[in-house]
Amino acid sequence: MSEVFADRRGRLRDRCAASGSAAALVSRPANVRYLAGGAPPGAVLLLGAGDDALLCPRTPTGDPVEGRLDERLRLVVLPGAGTDPAVAAVDLARGQGADVLAVEEHHLSVARHRAMGSAAPQVRLADLGTAVEQERIVKDEDEITCLRIAAEITDQALGELLESILVGRTERHLALELERRLVDHGADGPAFATSVATGPNAGRGGHRPSDRRVEEGDFLSVCLGANYRGYRCEIGRTFVIGTSPADWQIELYDLVFAAQRAARESLSPGRAYGDVDRAARQILEGAGYGECVAPVLGHGVGLEIEEDPQLAPGAMGKLDACVPVTVEPGVHLPGRGGVRIDDTLVVRQEADGGPELLTITTKELLAL
Amino acid sequence: MSEVFADRRGRLRDRCAASGSAAALVSRPANVRYLAGGAPPGAVLLLGAGDDALLCPRTPTGDPVEGRLDERLRLVVLPGAGTDPAVAAVDLARGQGADVLAVEEHHLSVARHRAMGSAAPQVRLADLGTAVEQERIVKDEDEITCLRIAAEITDQALGELLESILVGRTERHLALELERRLVDHGADGPAFATSVATGPNAGRGGHRPSDRRVEEGDFLSVCLGANYRGYRCEIGRTFVIGTSPADWQIELYDLVFAAQRAARESLSPGRAYGDVDRAARQILEGAGYGECVAPVLGHGVGLEIEEDPQLAPGAMGKLDACVPVTVEPGVHLPGRGGVRIDDTLVVRQEADGGPELLTITTKELLAL
């Protein structure tokens, strides 16, 4: 695996060199992890003329941290708890003779940026922009394997929950139980805060679990995902509690299902991000629910649960093969509840079988 | 309660006015929450010549968010998912006639800061610094009540764990069980990632739970805390597994206990931060463990689990009454394990009974 990280760093160095910076400082945590293979909190990565270096703080109340390193990457643990690794890095870059250092201006605070400038005024700070985020969009097969395992764990956790008694339990407890089951099945943790929404809360994106208890006749929507070796997937399903759903519940479910299927089927290399969104959105708008639809209908996943691309009306760009995305339309009717259906898929060429569905829990409307 | 938040905002406005800025933009999430009483992710707070305004993004995949507001605070939900609330805020400030806007340069990224400058070049951006963080150090009695409840919940969760069978269970499962119990007892969630460390891991600050199982003869150290209405406390205890601890375990425990007690007893208004650290550190150094001690022996707690002040050798400043802090010395012997004892206390005047211990679980060396 260590070759992978060295290769990624090599590509970034080439990209920097082409734009006039011999050295680059990566500070955004997921970007550091992507390029170093693992990094303790607060670590920054210096790619320079010399050896690449991972600069780590001592944790304020802990032992010196240890990073996983490959042979081309040097670990530098800073002596004091108060030393900013970014400031130490610009100093190291200056020592290596760098005159321009590209930094992540979308991540570094104004105060840190200024402290770096003061520490080494000889070094001009340029902007690396989102170069690393752009590299991260297309995944290699090892990354997709991690996502596939994350999805398997997620399906298992959700499947077990569906076999248990739900009526009378609170949203909060159901969310905790799902998170425990994720870890039981091998997740490093939840990929994001698990959402369980019942009754009038159902179908609300990002609903925070409350003390409301599951009741007969409720819609129940859940959204969860496992973090496996840093890779995060997402699944969302909506169920009905009780013997038979009401007519309005069946109609709303069928509508959202149709919208979600249309967006899934539109996933292919070369397809514009906005087209995927439109495939789902026009079905929901056509049924008169335009006002109840979220502004973004899907997004990339990987080392972060929300990555590029965004599948939204204004989004610029086109899908590539090997890009994992969520497709998650939903409709929430204030006071009544709603439906959200969410899958993680990998964009694949038609010749490779088309979009690969990672989250395989059924999307039939189950009455639990 | 709404008066409280309006008063806090009034103090900050006065402070800004005194330093030449009629308007201020608060973007750091815990600071926004402190001043607004609650805020959705990504919200920023504009304190200006006109009404104060809480500017909230629409969540990328959700419904428009709702903030808890008091009557003097206006809620502005931005129309698009892509609008940066900080950019919208500088535009609003300009519209209200502000010519200087103080911003949190330690929080705002270089890219956001530049976007604000471009959106309203007529408005000069000044630095608010850590003005809000400084205001947050001394807590009012309502805040301390939240911390006290958080500590009660934490003690309950830990107490229940001690009554269960531990041998053979993994660090990871014990940590999850503790987090479930925190929520069972009314926590909004864990205050931070629960740490459970066994055998050679015991006593390491910030140890991430692994699949190692508890064995007879182990040291077992746990560190956990509840989040109650946003307020976060912390407790750390070390136990021995089995019938009787080894001599080296008793000696190490007694030493860390003595160091922790010395630091606790040194907590009083007017005492220098560094003195508290030194009270514990000199005992550990005197026993020859100087190299094994963490660089910071305690810190403030509140809306964040690590707040000012830092109790560390170089820290400048003195304690005030009503400042809640942790006192958490530990010694970790590589390969053997170690001891960490951690309490949350509130600094109080001698006449008020001296430091108030919030986390009351026994600090006897229990053999479990």
From TrEMBL, chains A, B:
Source domain of life is: Bacteria
Q: Where is this region: Disordered?
A: 193-212
Q: Could you tell me which Pfam families the record lists for this protein?
A: Creatinase_N, Peptidase_M24
- Parts forming coiled coils: none
The Peptidase M24 domain, residue ranges: 146-348
List each copy of the Creatinase N-terminal domain by range. 8-138
* Signal peptide as annotated in the record: none
For this protein, the record's SUPFAM superfamilies field holds: Creatinase/aminopeptidase (SSF55920), Creatinase/prolidase N-terminal domain (SSF53092)
| Protein name (record) | Peptidase
